Amino acid sequence: MTSDQALLAYMLQDVRVLARQVESGEIDLQPYEALHWDVHGLARRAVICDPAALAQPVQRCVVGFFGERRPQASQSVVDDIEVDLLLEFRSHPGILSYSSTELVDNYWANLVIHEKPVDSQQWRNSAVHLRAVAEISPRQYRSVRIHNGRLPGGVVGSAAITIDRTKFWDYGDTWDPGASEVWEAVRDCV
Fold this sequence. Notes:
This protein is α+β, with helices and mostly antiparallel strands. It has a single domain, classed as 2-Layer Sandwich (Alpha-Beta Plaits). Helices cover 33% and strands 35% of the residues. The protein contains five helices and eight strands, in the order H-E-E-H-E-H-E-E-H-H-E-E-E. Strand 1 and strand 2 form a beta hairpin. Helix 3 packs antiparallel against helix 5. It is globular and about 55 Å long. 27% of the residues are buried.
């Protein structure tokens, strides 16, 4: 979990830089505009859904996603569902930003920053997210870790992300929807 927390902190720095650039007038971001760039040949993406709310110095909630992709995982399937999820943010105004960082071997980590705990619950109950969890994740990932936490002082502050709870899903080496069992666990961190 320490390496996950370090990667979330690294991803947060991208969002902090963008928020400060918007605040200073250095860049003009349109809500829901996707930004893409590379660092050392690895892709990064950020979607700032609400630049003004993101710049407020108040505590925010965070969700971090880490998945261990199956060797036969389809990048296009993951990309397609991610596009659908990103489009859905417009229906969830509490979602302030979404960031993705490519890791080696075509793995990705995601960071979502939102206003209140209820925001992530509402998003989790959306049709697209439910499909991603039930159909896409077990076929594309061997295991998934979801960290829920908070960011005291918000993005414009200097505090670190505090992880409150981590959820684990292990789908096994192979996935058969009718026969496979999912190992699940929850760890409260505070």
